[in-house]
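Ticket #4471: structure output looks truncated?

Reporter: J.K.
Steps to reproduce: submitted the chain below (720 residues) through the standard prediction queue, then opened the result file.
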Amino acid sequence: MKLFQNASIKHKLEAIILTTAATVLMVSVSLYIFIEVRSAKTNLIDQLEGIANLLSANSTAVLSFRDKEAALGMLSTLSIRKDIVSARIMDVDGRIFASYNAPDKRLSSFPEKGAEDKILPLSVFVSVPILLNDNRIGTFEVVGDFSLRAKRMSNDELGNLVDAFNQMLDQIEKYDIEIGSFQKSLVKQVTERTLALEKAKLAAESANRAKSDFLAAMSHEIRTPMNGVVGFASLLQETELNAQQRDYVKVITQSGDKLLTIIDDILDFSKMEIDKLTLKTQDFVLKKLVDDVDTFFKPKASKKGLSFNVSIDPELPDLVHGDPVRISQVLFNLVGNAIKFTSHGSVEVAVNLIHQTEDELVLNFIVQDTGIGVAMDKLDLLFQPFSQADGSITRQFGGTGLGLVISDRLVKLMNGTINVSSMPGEGSSFSATIQLRQSEKPDSSFVVQPKLINAEVSETAENQKANAAESLKGLSVLVVDDDAINLALAEGLLSHKGITVISATGGDEALDMIEQQSIDLVLMDLEMPEMSGFETTRRLRKMAGKAKTVPIIALTAHAFPEKRREVMDVGMNDLLAKPYKPEQLYQMITLWTGKEEKNDTHISTSNFSLSVYDQQQAKKSTNGDKELENRLVENFIAMLPSFRESIQKAASNDNYEVLYDHVHKLAGSAGTCFAVALHASADALQKKLKLSTVPTEQIGGDVLQLLDEMERFEKHFKVD
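Returned output as attached by the reporter:
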């Protein structure tokens, strides 16, 4: 630069002129080369299209007659063109009929459809259809190469320009080859990584399933010995104990209940992780559900000296459609945590209606406490599995840390969210918003309220349980189980109520017992080594006589819902999950047997000693509103003639599918209207209708008994 500054003006002008001239020359040469390359490509495309059109026309005959030799001969004529790399004839299905490759072939494969530009550098691709009567019968494809080099004809400036032109083409071809190689390498890496991710995903899903299966198996293995602990603790409570011994038994029972809660939480969590947990929606009385929460937790709060209040939005409809068991589970988790972590002050529960339409409604449950609270930076941990905001909480209060995780996922299943606000030392407020559907029934249609524990067993009022158990005296029950502890427990619980117990440790022995003795009911374990409970039931149902219809109740520690479907499919009547409470076992047996009268094969719910109407429960559910209670009863009685007519018509036509629908609806209405005996009769009949093994005459007898119970309910209120 300094040299240029010190140069004379003459030299500066000469340098500027030379630089300008050189720049113009370079631009001109580059433009010339670009135009030449573009022109060469255009010319080659035009030539190839002409050749392709000519050969495609000549290919019609060879392709129509499948003359491959003639097709190859026609393609071989392309060898006179050095700029043609490859050509081929494709049939209508895209299969190669005949192909040609130049001797110095550089094209390994034709481009795929939609990727015609991904061929050799400095190459062009032409494709034309092969037509027969305007119908495409194939395709002619050809690839040309315009990378041929120019020859140097002289040693002057034009010769140098030709050399420069050829060098530029070499560089372009080299770069294109490198880019193509890089693309192939990149595609290979992406493919390999995609396969690796797929493999890792499958491995993770397999591990997740294995974990869930392991948890289910562990749940079964833990529940089996827990059945003995809970059952014998219940039996022990009924023996003569001093005060200290009674306290010990109480601790055993409470510890067993806590352990079962933990097992259930882990099982729920494992089902959520593999998307096995689904909602079971039905119509239910929301106010009754909230009232159950109030009744359950008020004594617990009072015992800790806490104020416990529940408020319900008066605008809430009586009936809603959703999963009452899972809603109860969420409320029990939130309220249970609030009471557990609050040592003084209060726990407030509020249920509010956010908005509703003709089809849907959105509810908000708020649980607020004055407990220990949670720091702001720890709130996210509340909804992570097996985590708690403070590790010392687990040591002080216990728990798995799964309650809120399960609640959060259940709420999400109901298209809702859970939010929390909290201050350490001041308390916490949990807000759960869920979306439910409006009931499709009018307010006068009713449904049975769900039970959180062993919902399969129909419960009656407390003062009727003892009477129902009394009717079990004199029954003969076969207990089939390979576990000595379970057998001893069943014998103890059943003999305590005057039931004759016959024990069998396996399926073969059970089949022999059925043939030799008169059995009123079978309690069947599912997991037995030589012959499972499923296979035993299948064989039993094929036997002649009473074995075809004897009620069989499955006893299992498996808690998955699909297990109920399995037991029904093989011909069992019901399922009772281990560990079970003694009263649950008695109620199940009462439901399926009762005390049978002579010469009468159907279940006689009148002999269950069940009351016609549960006045106490009705009063509680209507919050003491006598006018509402009377209106519900009147509406239900007004529905009975329609039920009677439909049931009689379906029964007379032996249309058990329609009969089941009517009986199922009646059972729901009777249950919520607290028509105890009528509900028990309808519930027993609908369960029998699910079985294909029940004789027609027994169904007919149960229908008559159901009609009698309907009449008894009507007369009860006419007398009153």
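Triage note (M.O.): checked the attachment and the full token line is present. Residues 114-119, 389-398, 442-466, 595-609 have pLDDT under 50 and may be disordered.
Status: closed, working as intended.
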